[in-house]
Amino acid sequence: MTRITVTVDGVEYSDDIEPRTLLVYYLRQNLGKTGTVVGCDTSNCGACTVHLDGRSVKSCNVLAVQADGHEVTTIEGLAADGQLHPMQQAFHESHALQCGYCTPGMIMQACDLLKDNPDPSEQEIREGLEGNLCRCTGYHNIVRAVQHAAAAMRQGTEAPADSAVPAAGPGAPEPATAGVGAAGPEMPPGEGAPVSAGSTGEGVTA
Amino acid sequence: MTVTENQAPAQPEVGRARRRKEDQRLITGRTRWTDNLQVPGMLHLAMVRSPFAHARITAIDVEAARKARNVVAVITGQDVKDEQGSLPNAWPITPEQVTPAHPPVAVDEVHFAGEIVAVVVARSAAEARDAAELVDVDYEELPAVLDLKEAAQDTVLAHPDLGTNKSALWVFDSKEAGTGGDVEDAIRQARDGGVLIEREFRQQRLIPAFMEPRSVLVDPTGEQITMWTATQIPHILRFLLAAVLGVPESKVRVIAPDVGGGFGGKLQTTPEEFIAMVLARRLGKPIKYTETRSESLLSAHHGRDQWQKLTLAATKDGTVTGFKVELLANLGAYVALVGGGVPVLGAFMFNAIYKFPAYHFACQTVLTNTTWTDAYRGAGRPEATFGIERMMDELAAELDMDPLEVREKNWIKHEEFPFTTVAGMEYDSGNYEAATARAKELFDYDALRREQAERRERQDPVQLGIGVSTFTEMCGLAPSRVLGSLDYGAGGWEHASVRMLPTGKVEVVTGTSPHGQGHETAWSQIVADRLGVPFEDVEVLHGDTAISHKGLDTYGSRSLVVGGEAVVRAADKVIEKAKPVAAHLLEASVDDLEFSAGRFGVKGTDKGLTIQEIALASFAAHNLPDGIEPGLDSDATFDPVNFSFPHGTHLCAMEVDTETGETRMRTYVCVDDVGVIVNPLIVEGQVHGGLVQGIAQALWEGATYDDQGTLVTGSFVDYTLPTAADTISFVTENTTSPATTNSLGTKGVGEAGTIASTPCVVNAIVDALRPLGIHDVEMPCTPERVWRAIQNASAGSVDETQRDTAPHFDPDQPNQDTPDPEGGAR
Amino acid sequence: MIPASFDYVAPQSLTDALAALAEHGDDAKVLAGGQSLLPILRMRLNAPSVVIDLGKVTELQGISDEGDHLVIGAMTTYAAVLASEAVSTHAALLSKAVATVADPQIRHRGTVGGALVHADPAGDVGAPVLALDAELVIAGQGGATRTVPAADFFEDLFTTAVGEDELLTQIRIPKHTGWGAHYEKFVRVSHQWSIVAVAATVRAEGGSIAEARVGLTNMGSTPLRATAVEQALVGQSATEEAVRQACARAADGTNPPSDLNGDADYRRHLASVLTRRAVLAAAGA
């Protein structure tokens, strides 16, 4: 057993653990942080992505002992003061999740991507998410969500409210499939832009 | 009594792009996946799996494992053979079907690599795994049969005791059925002055690869045994656990908590679920098992895996006169829950959207020493659509016609609906012309054809191919009577309850079991409209057999068209129940009431009561009419009279690098008609996801075994799912022909994208390469396969990727010679 | 998914790390970034009794400019290499190759030294290190260090010149300032290991190629250097036709594997096409 002290989502924890304990299992089993999930055993899927000292890592590919003295942020620590993170809000608005199993890892990686590149192109978003597998969405709406979140975060607002057409909204890049992608209906007719939580009445908050 | 203001939403909920109710817990990490659950005293399982595809178990030494730290028990097949039962096959497709027994833990023999031979029970998952490494199994290897065609020869047997690998032969013939003519006549006529297209296509083996690995927790504490499991089918599982293990059904409660995707892959009753149940009962302790991804890829059921031998007869103007389909379908080592039936679902769809006068379908299911196969998104219908849509392109090429023109020549015109097909299905509605016209417009078909011609002209190393696919499918499984006629083991109805709570909130209980589809949102929209209550006030409950006591679960694009209609009917019954109460309270006659936007009003007055007010009054029951029971809660069970037949036209442009064989998708457009849309956002999401799964079959995915029967694609390193970086943004739209068989007019959407996209992509790749003399590339169309096709074509030899897919059948094959009287595939 | 049990040591200095290695010898595995080691441990393909974590040996991290060389500490992460202007200026080829390694999460943890010692022939760091004529500094017991040219470093599949009781400490890269560079990686899906990749860096002078360096990934049991191609490129104009000729035999002398992703003959063909593309891109053509 090895004693580790780790700060997770702002709370310091101290535990005696077996050195073989993967960070993801420490989070899930010792701390009950079950928002972070395991999707594979080869570090391909990215479902277990968390931030270690502010940068994204696959928590199946880090030993808990390696996190000793470091700071971890999981999906459960992303929302601040009861407000969803703009990335969480954008995933909701853009219908960027279905079964939701990949979602925590996808959101954590998407946040990391914007740290390096606050205004990414569609292709840059796609490449920035290449370590995260999703089986439900076909990625289309995940890419849209990251575009919206990026725009919202650049504007310093909580949600990309009232933008005319999502993909062509202020600062949102055209899809790489020039012409065709942009010509398509980004949102169902009649609904217009993704609207803020308030206007759809769901009031999703953390 | 007060007249309250109408609370109902101003615009109808159905048709609105509501953001999903499900999202909040999912985006904040507060989800209940089975593996998240912990019960005091819970023990963990680790499985010992066979490395051999076919072997006799000669000895198992469990002593070292038993002595390992914190091990509670080590179980072999011998230990539980009298209590573990045999995993069920719910769809024997013929009375004579050969069905091997399937013990959850192998007893004497293993029949595929990955089969469970021993189980360790320990206090932690880590300790269980440690001890599993210490179990020593002696095997006597037996000859394994892995290849589907070889298996059909019966030279090596997957189950020697059965005497054959052939499980069942299922045949449909339009002449016999009276739904059309004799396909052999059509073939004879085509050979003599018409056009005969003969092709053999491979549907490779796929792995559903839902993102959440399967997990099961069984708690025998208390009166009921509770099983939480990552399943699509809690109700069917409960029934079969009871039926197979002899536990009273009333003592079993199955809960599907949040479930992370299924795609048919969680439409199964698994060895792991049965083992957990047996051991929890035996040890009297809660038992949990969560598979690793490698175990999932190895042992959870696979999908597809067919050889399709197809013969299309046509006249020289492109009118199809007959279609003959001979399938070999690989069941794997056992006949899975609905494994044998999956290819049979394709039987009714090979004729697709077309008016074929003659049709013959024969499918031989075959056992091999590989992982069992069963439903994977589309289940039988993608295979059928691939077969016919590839053939329509081949016909167009043969006649030098535009592929859309050939299709139009043969498809059912919109004014011809309802239309009874040569396979005996009655298509209720559709408009293929409208969907195709819109798709062409969005795609800029003519401009891309011009670019293709230019690239051909200048011999650009990067060629452009344009792929076309239309589709229809039968979904919304299903009319119980039809399922009965196909020997399916259950009905196809669905159940719903609508409960009016005294505070005015509404609980909807559905027998469907969503795992990503968004039923909580869509059902809320339906009920909000029906009852005139706010969307936010509706709560949808599902996936727990103690709460949703009756249901047939989620698969086959059935939830909305069957389960949604049950919800509609239950809601309507609530209104009917409320009506006499309202009349009583309003001191009016029932005939003078009108229900609108959630309120019963007395005609010609401003008097009225909302349904919530009536719910409260009915709960209090202080002042009810004589003979009226308190409460408005209502149930409905809906059994559809027909399937649902969505359709669509898909177009894609693929660039093919002729130097490396690499392909790149440029553009993908689809216009699908899924009837009336409840939530366009959810529909769009279903289509996107379906498209990528279908495209992945065309380009990337394939489960492969080596000569020893080891799954080579046993991890996500080798089973190559696409990422965001490998895919593009899609253009999706809808046309709408309301279904006539449910009151909402909806059709299924879950499988649409997957069904049409696979042939669309392959047609595009072949279209790019056709000037080189190439007319097929086996899936997945890897760069190497495309490159080899080009190499072989330019060397003037037969395309090597078609080693087994000869362009024309050998002279002694039935299509070229005297037809096989059985019509069976060999 | 759960590794077998092991003991864990996390030395704070190179000296302590070497001492730990001497003490545990064969039973130990060295943990650098862990992005290849942890999957191996999770799948129980290896079960060391001790894991020696170099994560706290800070002297092995960082990039420094030493005049005509860049010196990269073995424990420098891919992310740090990518962020380094010195590397993108003086060893652009390494930047370009590292940018293609796995995915962002893995690049945050994985280290250049760890990848070199792991010596997976499909890894993306070996070929550029070889093509750039890097030198590898290896520390042994008793404080001894030795320097091995990249050409002698890779011995076989998963085998390098680093002995059982030694540690790789530095990668010394001669500056290739002003050289164009390109890493042409061929994969079926983006998160795959290279099926074949070509690392090319070129010094162009007035539209023709003055010098070229070409490394091949996954064309044999080790990264390979296409020296014949390099020679044939000298003096050629940076045009499709001239380069095509020079690269035609890029696969000569290679021994690529045959597997799910391609048979050897296909990989040989790819090598020549990808070499041409890499060289042309490196030459800015």
Task: Give the CATH superfamily of the domain at 168-207 and 301-403 and 423-476 and 643-802 in chain B.
Answer: Aldehyde oxidase/xanthine dehydrogenase, molybdopterin binding domain
SSE run of chain A: EEHEEEHHHHHH
| Oligomer designation | heterotrimer
Our Rg estimate of chain A from Cα atoms comes to: 18 Å
Summed up, the helix count of chain B is 22
Total beta strands of chain A: 5
Radius of gyration of chain B: 28 Å
- The secondary-structure class of chain A comes to alpha+beta
Distance between the termini of chain B: 77 Å
CATH names the topology of the largest domain in chain A as: DNA polymerase, domain 1
CA-based shape of chain A: globular
Domain count of chain A:
2
Adjacency order of strands in the biggest sheet of chain A:
2-1-5-3-4
Helix content of chain A: 25-40%
Report on the biggest sheet of chain B.
7 strands, mixed
Description:
Chain C: Residues 1-178 form the FAD-binding PCMH-type domain. Chain C: InterPro entries: CO_DH_flav_C, CO_DH_flav_C_dom_sf, Diverse_Substr_Oxidored, FAD-bd_PCMH, FAD-bd_PCMH-like_sf, FAD-bd_PCMH_sub1, FAD-bd_PCMH_sub2, Mopterin_DH_FAD-bd. Chain C: It holds the Pfam family CO_deh_flav_C. Chain A has seven helices and five strands. A five-stranded mixed beta sheet of chain A has the order 2-1-5-3-4, with helices on both faces. Chain A starts with a strand and ends in a 6-residue tail after the last helix. Chain A has 206 residues and is α+β, with helices and mostly antiparallel strands. In chain B, strands 3-5-1-12-9-10-11 form a seven-stranded mixed beta sheet. A five-stranded mixed beta sheet of chain B has the order 7-15-14-13-8. In chain B, helix 18 crosses helix 19. Chain B is globular. Residues 1-9, 798-808 and 811-826 of chain B have low confidence and may be disordered. Chain C is of the alpha+beta class. Chain C is 33% helix and 25% strand. Chain C has twelve helices and 14 strands. Chain C has helices at residues 14-24, 37-42, 78-83, 85-90, 92-98, 104-109, 112-118, 126-131, 150-153, 227-233, 240-247, 264-282; strands at residues 7-9, 28-31, 50-53, 63-66, 69-73, 135-139, 145-149, 154-156, 159-160, 167-174, 180-186, 196-205, 208-217, 224-225. In chain C, the strands form four sheets. Chain C has a five-stranded antiparallel beta sheet with strand order 4-5-10-6-7. In chain C, strands 11-12-13-14 form a four-stranded antiparallel beta sheet, sandwiched between helices. Chain C has a three-stranded parallel beta sheet with strand order 1-3-2, with helices on one face. Chains in contact: A-B, A-C, B-C. The interface between A and B is large, with 76 and 76 residues.
